[in-house]
Amino acid sequence: MRFRPAALVPYAVLAASTLLLVAVGAWYARAGGDDPATAGAHLTRAEWQVVDTQGFRAPPSTVDSASLPGTWQPVVLPDALHDAKSGPADGGVRTSWVKLSTQGLAIPPGPLLLYGARIHTDGTIAIYVNGQLVHRAQAQGPLWNSLFTPLLVDLTEHEGGAVPKEILLRIEHTSSFRVGVSSLWLGSPDAMRERYYVRLWLQQEMPATLNTAFLAVGFFALFIWFKRRHETSYLLFFYLAATSFAAHMHYYANLPIASGWFAWMTLNALFWLIVAIHFFLRQLHGRRLLWLTRGLVGISATITVLTLPSIQVLSVMPNAPIVAPSIYAIILLAALTVSIVDGVAAWNRSREGRLLMLCLGVCVLLGIPDWMLHNHVMNPEGWFTGAYTNAVTFGAFGLLMYRRYINAIGEVERINASLAQRLQQRESELALSHRRLLEAELRQTISDERQRLMQDMHDGLGSSLISAIRSVQGGGVDSGQVSQILKDCLDDLKLTIDSMEPVDADLLLLLAMLRFRLEPRLKTAGIALSWEVQDLPALSWLDPSSALHILRIAQESIANILRHAQASEIRVRTTVATDAIEVHIEDNGRGFDIERALAAATGRGLHNQQRRAAAIGGTVTWQAIDGGVRFTLRLPLERQVVPAG
Amino acid sequence: MNTARHDADPPLIHVAIVEDDPSFCMALSQAVHAAADMLLVGVASSRIEGLALLQGPPADVLLVDLGLPDGSGIDVIRAAVQQWPSCSIMVSTNFGDETHVMRSIEAGAAGYLLKDSSPVRMVDEIRSLASGGSPISPIIARQILARFRQPGPDPQPVAQAPAAPDLLSPREREVLDLITKGFTAQEIAKLMQLSPFTVRSFVRRIYNKLQVSSKAEAIYEARTLGLLPD
Predict the structure, then answer these.
(1) For an interface test with A, which of B97, B114, B142, B144 has the most A Cβ atoms less than 10 Å from its Cβ?
(2) pLDDT below 50 — which residues of chain B?
(3) Which of A32, A198, A184, A193 is nearest to A111 (CA)?
(4) How is A177-214 classified by DSSP, letter by letter?
(5) DSSP label of A164
(6) A·B CB contacts under 8 A
(7) Residues of A with CB under 8 A from a CB of B
């Protein structure tokens, strides 16, 4: 098997990255060390009592639990502490005391840490060990993230490391508030820290990270929308990221609950988020669902306005005992409605709609524990899973974007492929039509050439041969004459062949060819040829057909001199006029009566010359000169019309 | 033509002929017989006989017809160039048309003879060829000029890789140029102040260069074909 490094490299990179992540996770998970089950004692059995007080007070540094005025009631943690007797309804302050004994529990030796998942109150928290104050939490009242931040108390510096016998919790709260207390753990620092950090990470840090990532991707979508304004789903995505970021801020904000604006914002952002998801789904399934839209927008707007801190019709402080839980219920209800109605509408139309519906459903499920925790339906050690709704939304919308991205790439590739295919098809079509055109052109050329040669042979070679045959049959001619006629025929043929050579618009070359052919005959006839030519401009119209006409005209002229003029010298000259070239062929023979020759029927040669000259847009003239005739062929430099033949 | 027929003792010109047309063969034989300075040493009427003829003692002038009954005279010309290097080869042709003549020159012929030439002209041409001269026509001159086209005035030099433009000297180029304008060797000699023989020997040199360049071209083309089939 051949080793192909290029194919393996990507897998190696994938394996290395995965391994790195797994290693980091493993290291982080194992950093806790000891087995938590054996490294600590679980404190669940407690006694509690509630005492009315005058306002919030700083906790005393020592408390003797036996001196507290109330009667102790047993309770099994985690639980909500519910007082049967109703306290003052005017929102006065009460203090709940919770006493836990370590008797009978296996407390590990060495330094100890106290851990608890959550103490839910709207006031302060103080912790006493063996009557000594060891820890205070949310001394200025609850923080936004108090509910999501576990408790960890270092006991090593107190009591000189003495084994704690009794742990006492002092919990201040408003009279109508139901305090929730989780079970506590007492154990080695490593074990307790591990519990603490795992809880902190899962409940707070990881959702915060995902939330930030969601927002970052939201900004990415926003910048896409800047470039592609018509695709509003990108803007909607940004809106979604922004609202969900805002809606979950209270999970992470380590600030006192002081400003109503923050609560207003985080709470109402959930409504806006649901409205956004509804619009998103509407885009996907394409139905208007008017009543749902109106209802959602109406409820959201109403609650948004009513909860405005400046109006204060409804309080949104998380500890407001009635309003906040009911608003959460409305939110859950709205989310559930959108999830079902839009989900049904989108079910058969869009896979993406189905995905979003499932996402919203999961979010509702995740939101229910939050509501239950807020309303003490669930014990206070539970998880606020609502923090993960963001992760789910992010995951779902991330999946949508991923699908669009992959589809877009696929589409581009498909279009490119089909473009290439179409281009190839077009090219082959073009090549085919080009070839057909060439073939047609070639056929035309061949046909033209054939016609030209036929015409020439008919007039020249054909008639010369026929007259030769007739002469031989008549018996009135000697073999010398027959030989002469045949030689003329051969000369005709040679000129026909010469006319097919490309002369590149060079008239002089054409004349040179003629001289080359006729020279032997002139020599035989004893006639001197004076070649007085000069360089000539190119004749762009000089095609084989025109070339043959010119050759025949000049040939005829020289033949006439040979036949009739009894000349001893022929001069061939060329002159260039402004718009024409003139070829002069002069002899020193006895001359002839030009008028009469042209008029006579026997002047067929002269008429042929005139006809041929006209065919190429030129003229021929004869002029008597001192002791002979000057024949002039005048050829235009440019030919306007191209006559056939 | 000034036929230098001094009855001193110039060696006889040995003439051989490869020709399947008996009448031309006869006419040529008679013309050679009539010439006192020539001797017909071999006659072949096919390609095979022609190639066999080349095994014998070399002649001074070999006349070859291209259209032989059993193949092309070009083969005979190529073989003659190899086996009779001192021999001047002449192709006999009806029309002296460009296609036939150029191919023959590229194969190694030094001249051509029109079959309808008069007997006097025939022996003149043979004599001129034997003495190192070569005939040329305007069409052939134009073809050779095109083949050795100089880069410069022409904006698009012809893509004939091995045909070095410098192969022709300025004077050779001038001779060819005058021939395309219709001037005869005698007139050119007068214009360029040379002897007519020098002009004809220029032509022979040009033919040799054409043969060399066409060989190089053939190698180039073979390579191209090897690289790019079809």
Answers:
(1) B142
(2) 1-7, 151-165, 228-230
(3) A193
(4) PPEEE--EEEE-HHHHHHHHHHHHIIIIIHHHHHHHHH
(5) P
(6) 48
(7) 487, 490, 493-494, 497-498, 501, 503-504, 506, 508-509, 511-513, 515-516, 519-520, 524, 531, 533, 535
Asked if B179's CB is within 8 angstroms of A513's CB, the reply is no
Count of other CB atoms within 10 angstroms of residue A228? 12
Q: What average pLDDT does chain A have?
A: 82
CATH code linked to domain B11-149: 3.40.50.2300
* Binary contact (A504, B95; C-beta < 8 A): no
Torsion angle in degrees (nearest 10) through CA of B216, B219, B221, B224:
-130
CA distance A24 to A22: 6
Contact B118 A504 (CB under 8 A): no
CB contact under 8 A, A512 and B118: no
State whether B118 and A513 contact (CB < 8 Å). no
Of A493, A509, A535, the CB nearest to B138: A509
- B169/chain A closest Cα distance in angstroms: 22
Cα separation, A272 vs A296, whole angstroms? 9
Query: Cβ(A391)–Cβ(A241) under 8 Å?
Result: no
Count of residues in chain B: 230
Touching A: B residues 117-156, CB under 8 Å: 117-118, 121, 137-139, 142
Q: How many residues does chain A have?
A: 645
> Which residues lie closer than 8 Å to A193 by C-beta, 6 or more apart?
A32, A113, A152
Residue-level pLDDT at B168: 84
Find chain A residues with C-beta within 8 A of B97's C-beta.
497, 501
C-alpha distance from residue A634 to each of A618, A620, B164 (Å): 5, 6, 40
String of DSSP letters for A430-466: HHHHHHHHHHHHHHHHHHHHHHHHHHHHIIIIIHHHH
Comparison of pLDDT for A352 and A21, the residue scoring more:
A21
Locate the chain A residue with the closest alpha carbon to B184.
A516
CA distance to partner chain B, nearest, from residue A544 (Å): 14
The beta strands (E) that lie in B45-118 are given as: 61-65, 67-68, 71-72, 88-93, 111-114
A560-581 pLDDT tens trace: 888 887 889 999 999 998 889 9
Query: What is the arithmetic mean of pLDDT over A101-119?
Result: 83
B95 contact residues in A (CB cutoff 8 A): 493-494, 497
The answer to whether the predicted template modeling score (pTM) of the entire model surpasses 0.90 is no
Sorted by where each begins, the domain ranges of chain B are 11-149, 164-224
DSSP state of A564: I
User: How far does the CA of residue A485 sit from the closest CA of chain B (Å)?
Assistant: 14
Least confident window among A12-26, A103-117, B120-134: A103-117
Q: What is the ipTM of this complex?
A: 0.84
Question: What's the gap in Å between the CA of A574 and the closest CA on chain B?
Answer: 12
What is the token pair recorded at A638?
A: 């440019």
Q: What is the pLDDT of residues B120-141, one digit of tens each?
A: 989 999 999 999 999 999 988 9
Is A497 in Cβ contact with B97 (below 8 Å)? yes
Neighbours of A112 (CB within 10 A): 25
- Residue A387 to residue A602: CA distance in whole angstroms: 120
The secondary structure element, H or E, covering residue A34 is none
- Gap from A491 CA to chain B (nearest CA, Å): 10
Chain A touched by B116 (CB under 8 Å): yes
> Which residue do the tokens 């949310």 mark?
A138
Continuous H helices in A248-350: 260-285, 290-306, 323-347
B11-149 and B164-224 in the same fold: no
Residue B204 contacts residue B134 (beta carbons within 8 Å) = yes
User: Of A65, A68, A92, A96, which is closest to residue A83 (Cα–Cα)?
Assistant: A96
Q: B164-224 adopts what CATH topology?
A: Arc Repressor Mutant, subunit A (1.10.10)
